[in-house]
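hiii, so i know i said id send this last week but things got crazy w the move. better late than never?? heres the sequnce for the chain we talked about at the cafe, plus the structure i predicted for it. fair warning i was half asleep when i ran it
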Amino acid sequence: MSLTLTDVTLTYADGDARLTALDQVTLDVPRGSLTAVVGPSGSGKSSLLAVAATLITPDAGTVTVDGTTTTGMTRGDLTDLRRRKIGIVFQHPNLLPALSACEQLQVMAQIDGRSPARARTRALELLDAVGLAPQAERRPHQLSGGQRQRVNIARALMNDPTVLLVDEPTSALDHERGAAVVDLLTRLTHQQATATVLVTHDRAHLIGVDQIAEVHDGRLRPGPRPEQALRQACR
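okay and structure toks below
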């Protein structure tokens, strides 16, 4: 398994009490597979993603990324782990306005110490993989919303992560573009052999995912099969 959460509990202060965001959550995501995590707003989806990304330390339980258990790691070690092992696709691309699509990716590799030539080669490979090779030199204002999200995905893959965490990538897209983004994530997951977690409220695009998990009140349970989720979403 490339990503494993075991009996993870996370609470937040709520006045004099504690609010439970995650309640003994266990999740295994193998390399080369995509797990969709669904649930209503406030159910714990975002908290689960933040814990998996090592951005928040849980109260109890363990997070294991590509064989490394994160318990007890320093902030510096966690930062290094994220840079080497975890790609994060945020809900909004937040691309730098002055940089081309290719340069958005090159910056990530240069932060990791790669040479500019190697960084550009890898960036062009990934832009080709997401269908944006002809747009490599375009800036964000010259791209559609779906294209900007594809750049966002390619950027998260720039440092060859083993774990890919994706937060609501279709929320600002129409149905057709949203479906295309999920199809792209499914294909790249298999091609790049990442352990991918897709957090979403939209069940209509999940026909191609490998498994679905549902979050309710901080508890995680197996969800319906992808084809069942599609039928439910279409009712």
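btw The chain has one domain: 3-91+148-233. thought thatd interest u
miss u guys!!
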